[in-house]
Structures are given as C-alpha cells and as structure tokens.
Amino acid sequence: MRNLWGNFKNKLAYWMQGRYGNDELNNALYITFIVLWVITLITRKPIFYWIGLVALGYSLYRSFSRDHLKRSNERLWFLKKLEQIKKLPKQWKQRWEQRNTHKFYRCKQCGVTIRVPKGKGQIEITCPKCGHKFIERT
Ligand SMILES: [Zn+2]
Asked: How close is the Cα of 34 to the center of ligand 1, in Å?
C-alpha cells in the first residue's frame, strides 16, 4: 500500500513537471470559489456557484498550464491590481479630508486622478501624466 502511494506520488510529480503550479492569483481564485459557494448556501441562488466553478476551473487550468510566461504576466497584473485596491481606503480618506479645499477629476484619456483647488471658476486642466487637456468648473 505504501509502495502504491509512493508510486502514485512519483507519477504525479512526473506529470506536474514543467507545469506552472500555484501562485497568489490561484489562491485568490480558490478563495473566490469558497466565498461564492458559501453565498450559494445562504442565498440558494445557483448562479454564484457556477461563477465560483469558473474561478476554480480557471485556477486549475493555470496550475497545469505549461505557458509560464503568460501565467507570470497574469500574476503580475493581479499583484498590481491588488496594490491599487489596497491603496483605495487611504485615497478615500485623503479625498474626504480635502473635500472643502480641493476637487478631484479623473483624466478621460489615461484614468489618472487629478487634484485641483476649489473656487477658481472655469479652468483648463492639463493631465500631468498624458498631457490631455479638459475644461472644468471648480
Ligand atoms: Zn491623462
């Protein structure tokens, strides 16, 4: 029995050779699946379960994938998004504290947030990142 298990482990290790394995994005997908499964149990709406299965299937696909470059690019994209999301509460707090003195606009071209002082009337705003110009009332 012990030998059989060892044999199975060897075969599995051989089969997993060259495959991508696990990373932070896969962990997030597993957690998504579990959360959606719990939501399904509470709401009794199977749609959440199906979305969860898609997340689970995608994470399995990523684990067994041999395209390491694509998988690591996905991982980097995910980690970047995660960093942005982690910064959000601080940004919201800052905006709330400065709501009487400044106005915040989003550049329609590159999506960057621009802070301008309030009470200057109609002004032309130039995006510091991409140079896109637009007119707003402050
Ligand atoms: Zn811009």
From this structure: 38
CA of 106 to the centre of ligand 1 (A): 8
Give CA–CA dist 43/46, Å, rounded.
9
Is 125:117 a contact under the CB 8 Å cutoff?
no
> How far, CA to CA in Å, does 112 sit from each of 12, 50, 60, 65, 115?
47, 35, 35, 35, 10
136 Cα to the center of ligand 1, angstroms = 15
**Per-residue pLDDT tens for 104-134?**
999 999 999 999 999 999 999 999 999 999 9
